[in-house]
Amino acid sequence: MFTGIIESVGNVAKARKQGSDMMLSINVGKMDMSDVKLGDSIAVNGVCLTVTGFDSSQFSADVSVESLARTSLADLQMGTRVNLEKAVTPTTRLGGHMVSGHVDGLATIVSVEQDGRAWQYWLQTPPELSRYIAEKGSVTIDGISLTVNAVERDQFRLTIIPHTRDETTLKDLNVGDHVNLEVDLVARYLERLMTFGGANAQSSQGDRVSMELLARSGFLK
Fold first, then answer.
1. Rounded to whole angstroms, how far apart are CA atoms 95 and 117?
2. Which of 30-39, 92-101, 183-192 has the highest mean pLDDT?
3. 71, 180 in Cβ contact below 8 A?
4. What is residue 202's predicted lDDT score, i.e. its pLDDT?
5. How confident is the model at residue 205 (pLDDT cuts 50, 70, 90)?
6. 141-157: buried (b, 16+ CB within 10 Å) or exposed (e) per residue?
7. InterPro entries given for it (predicted)?
8. Predicted confidence (pLDDT) per residue in 85-132, tens digit
């Protein structure tokens, strides 16, 4: 589990195909590796990867066929900058939102415009993920926890403050670039509960999740 608060911007030291998989070596930049162990999880551009080797300045991880097909990791090249975050501990501040590191798909940058000191990013979502994006809800873009400030059909807008842009790879993005998108965990589980509570539920009516129940519980306006 992660928070979406980026600890460091690193870069790819090596990206080597191994059959249909890939082995990555990542220079970690300013990230502290003193508490890292073999088998720990580190998010690379929002993708949860398992540490298979490390030292004080870099770590290695294997990337599966599934991750290569669903994320932008297949496009990484030597020198590419990446957002890094170690998995949370019981004492970690939850500064962003609950992030699993399991990417749902790729979003596309539609426009990038400066607005005062901030920047406005419009992104296009895959049709099957648009229903999970809500105004003032949370999304994860390349591992960064961000707030959705507007939604129009299958596009949404992010307002990026200077600190976030400077301390992540957001300033590297251009129109047409693809980014890893993870939707809010709560939205996915609510949909599953509503589906299960409708056509497939075996439980009593009082146990089912309904629109009325969600409204009473404060999930709907």
1. 22
2. 30-39
3. yes
4. 47
5. very low
6. bbbbbbebeebeebbbb
7. ATP_synth_asu-like_sf (IPR023366), Lumazine-bd (IPR001783), Lumazine-bd_dom (IPR026017), Riboflavin_synthase-like_b-brl (IPR017938)
8. 999 988 777 788 889 999 999 999 999 999 999 999 999 999 999 999
Q: Tell me how far apart the alpha carbons of residues 145 and 117 are, in angstroms, rounded to a whole number.
A: 20
Q: Give the span between the Cα atoms of 23 and 15, in whole angstroms.
A: 6
The structure's pTM equals 0.84
Ramachandran class of 42: left when φ > 0, alpha when ψ lies in -120 to 50, beta otherwise: beta
Judge contact between 83 and 29, C-beta under 8 A: no
60-69, 154-163, 209-218: lowest mean pLDDT where? 209-218
From CA 193, how far away is CA 209, in angstroms rounded? 6
Rg (CA), the chain: 19
pLDDT at res. 19: 85
What residue ranges define each of the domains in the chain, with the CATH number in brackets? 8-86 (2.40.30.20), 105-185 (2.40.30.20), 187-216 (no CATH)
For residues 182 and 99, the answer to whether their CB atoms sit within 8 Å is yes
Non-local (6+) Cβ contacts of 4 within 8 A are 46, 85, 96, 97, 99, 138, 140, 143, 144, 145, 146
Number of H helices and number of E strands within the chain?
4, 12
User: What is the three-class DSSP state of 65?
Assistant: helix
